[in-house]
């Protein structure tokens, strides 16, 4: 196939600017690639001309195929589940939240070879995206301290760099968010709540579907079955981009929302249970004390306690004599 297209124009909806999305080497468009730029998209559509109805693009085995064998001359628009379509209409087709809504931060690179230059460092890390800053920390003599900083222009590039190990000039190096900023990013939830599950949807089904949006670290469906589950992503921005959307898995519309920590969800319930428990303990304790008091007051005095002095009357007389 000669002059195969390498990019196709795609936009969220009509009236917005188009973005050129890269194609695979076989001329198809990967759903993973499309979702990286338009999170939550489930399909693509196009028109033959301005008077024709929309046509859906063929999706097979995780790849979109060119209409009638050619991408040329067409512009493509994103297709969302019905719930998302209404939201887009209500917000005047505002783009979905995703990588472009997340801000970048400086990344620290640890374990750098001492002979590495900024130019060599840039040449390696530019493969993940456009860099706006590359810096190697040096001492007063100009010698490398073995670590440095990089900063990407867009969040998707930052996520790619953070999501894998790096081998630079025959040495493994570590890329991470500096400790001073790590606390903020660690608070961003990586887990999503998947509602409306049916019993024929398994953990592998969820893993297969949601892996197109990013790397998954865990999938969990509670047993016994309770019609919901959880999916945890390596990148918090992917999880956030999927929230408040509906996704079709095995013909079932699943609603995605943020998975709140268990401690937050059950805090009030735990406090209530503790209060009920303490009230029960207090009530039962007071009741037991009252019963013990009644039993003590009604207990008969044994006669043998006065046996030393004989009968009660003798005891009284003896007390007088002893005075």
From TrEMBL:
The keyword Repeat applies. GO terms for cellular component: chromatin; nucleoplasm. It holds the Pfam family RRM_1. Keywords: mRNA processing, mRNA splicing, Nucleus, Repeat, RNA-binding, Transcription, Transcription regulation. GO terms for molecular function: RNA binding. The keyword Nucleus applies. CDD domains: NTD_TDP-43 (cd19609), RRM2_TDP43 (cd12322). InterPro entries: Nucleotide-bd_a/b_plait_sf, RBD_domain_sf, RRM_dom, TDP-43_N. It is found in: Nucleus. Residues 105-182, 190-261 form the RRM domain. GO terms for biological process: mRNA processing; regulation of gene expression; RNA splicing. This is RRM domain-containing protein.
